[in-house]
UniProtKB/TrEMBL annotation:
This is Efflux transporter outer membrane subunit. It comes from the Bacteria. InterPro entries: MdtP/NodT-like, OMP_efflux. Gene3D superfamilies: Outer membrane efflux proteins (OEP). Keywords: Lipoprotein, Membrane, Palmitate, Signal, Transmembrane, Transmembrane beta strand. The lineage of its organism: Bacteria, Pseudomonadati, Pseudomonadota, Gammaproteobacteria, Enterobacterales.
Length: 478
């Protein structure tokens, strides 16, 4: 009896609230062990030589001091279809934010309705099916009219809408950073193709000179063989060398066409002005003094992946909140009458205020499946983020190491070019004194030209690696 009295003293609304919470659909615990990689876990090998070099700026390509390159990259960043696609994705994500943001705003609709209905004599409105003017029934036909304003307001008790809003904002931030990543990718690709053309043009000039020199050597060997002064073997070797040079020229010309068409596609198509010859720049990019958290902050692709993870966590919060009751308020004010003649009479005014509470008890597994899906999606995105971080560190280390090795090789190649030039000058001097034939002097020139071609190709590789390193470091501040 005492217990019954205690229960009777409990306020009805509080009791109902407790019952509703207890009756909520059960949710499973999160047992995932997948965690985002931390900055202290970014460990670089000891052999990597870090310097005090500053990070690249946002327009890193301008350090090459090449107006043609600057113009091409500016054009690509304005006209490339990839940039247009990235802008469209950002705009769409902004619309998604606005759409979710409107979920908890007050919505008001004007409504007008005419309902011509025949009332059944055997239904629950059966008395209205008869024509009884005294009682106000003129059945069985009625033309009902409704005119008024309806309003709905969703109350975000558990933050479900707020979490969904934060999730789509996270996606919007990711798309903005992906746009930066696309811009970095395009600028790096344009620079690679541009200097690929410049390298090919310089190699082609040396190959043309080498072809002329080799043609003279071939003619000389053929003349000596025709006079019986030497066997035809030397002429055949010279012929094979000349064919190899011609083959290299054909490949260089085809490669230039491929570079140019790729560059034209990146810059939005249309006419592309002739690219004038320009010297290859000296690579200046080096590894900064530290990489860990700064690399995570400067790489737009890593920042985008981070925002996708944050968004997925907010999706989980929203999925959790869906297990709890939802509350809304609906209202109506207007006129409602069974006869259109009476619609705008004062007595036809109608006002409704309808608070509503909705409790998920049995969802058929839908809420649980949605929560599991959100958690698995988070685990996928965290794993992708972790892999992207490790790949970014690998890219920086391997590119920086390759650039250092190429620069060391370049010093040796420069010495080889100098030695070949000294040998060529010596051969020319000996030829002018009549000590050797002109063909032997041309063979010395051929050696010098061959080493020059290797030097140019190596310088092109260094510039290419320098561009890749700028890209791997994130291309400057976001």
């Amino acid at each position: 009896m005492y217990c019954l009295k205690r229960v009777n003293k409990v306020k009805p609304m509080a009791a109902l609230y407790c019952v509703l919470l207890v009756a909520c659909a059960p949710m499973k615990d999160d047992i995932s062990t997948v965690k985002p990689i931390q900055q202290q876990q970014i460990v670089l090998p000891k052999e990597v030589k870090l310097t005090s070099q500053q990070w690249p700026n946002s327009t890193w390509w301008k350090n090459y001091n090449d107006p043609q390159l600057n113009a091409l990259i500016d054009r690509a960043l304005k006209q490339s279809p990839s940039i247009a696609l990235a802008h469209a994705r950002v705009a769409k994500s902004r619309s998604d934010v606005t759409l979710i943001e409107s979920g908890t705003q007050l919505k008001v609709n004007a409504m007008a309705e005419i309902n011509a209905a025949h009332v059944s004599s055997n239904g629950y409105l059966g008395p209205f099916a008869k024509d009884r003017p005294v009682l106000g029934t003129t059945g069985p036909w009625y033309t009902e009219g409704i005119v008024g304003l309806g309003a709905t307001l969703d109350i975000d008790l558990w933050g479900e809408h707020r979490d969904r809003l934060d999730a789509v904002i996270g996606v919007e931030n990711a798309h903005r950073l992906e746009q930066k990543a696309v811009e970095l990718e395009i600028s790096a690709d344009v620079a690679q193709l541009y200097y690929g053309i410049q390298t090919t043009d310089q190699v082609t000039l040396r190959l043309e000179a080498l072809k002329q020199s080799e043609t003279f050597v071939l003619n000389s060997h053929q003349a000596r063989a025709a006079q019986g002064l030497e066997s035809s073997a030397d002429a055949e070797m010279a012929q094979a060398m000349l064919l190899s040079i011609r083959q290299q020229l054909l490949m260089a010309k085809q490669q230039r066409v491929a570079f140019r068409e790729s560059l034209r596609a990146l810059t939005g198509g249309g006419e592309l002005a002739d690219i004038k010859s320009a010297p290859l720049p000296v690579a200046q990019t080096q590894l900064p003094s530290s990489l860990n958290y700064q690399l995570l902050a400067r790489r737009p692709d890593l920042q985008a992946a981070h925002w996708y993870v944050q968004s997925s966590m907010k999706q989980i919060d929203a999925a959790n909140a869906a297990f709890y009751p939802t509350f809304d308020i609906k209202a109506f004010f207007g006129f409602d009458a069974l006869h259109l003649d009476d619609l705008f009479n004062h007595s036809s005014q109608q006002a409704n205020i309808i608070p509503g509470l909705y409790l998920p008890i049995f969802s058929g597994g839908q809420l649980e499946a949605n929560l599991d899906k959100s958690r698995h999606q988070r685990d996928i995105l965290i794993s992708q983020y972790n892999q992207a971080v490790l790949t970014a560190v690998k890219d920086v280390v391997t590119t920086g190491s390759a650039l250092q090795s190429l620069q060391e090789e370049q010093l040796l190649q420069n010495e080889k070019v100098s030695s070949a030039a000294a040998g060529m000058n010596n051969a020319k001097a000996r030829y002018h004194r009549g000590l050797i034939s002109e063909a032997m002097a041309h063979e010395a020139q051929r050696q010098w030209l061959s080493e020059q071609i290797k030097q140019i190709e190596m310088q092109g590789q260094i510039v290419s690696q320098d561009i890749v390193l700028n890209k791997a470091l994130g291309g400057g501040k976001i």
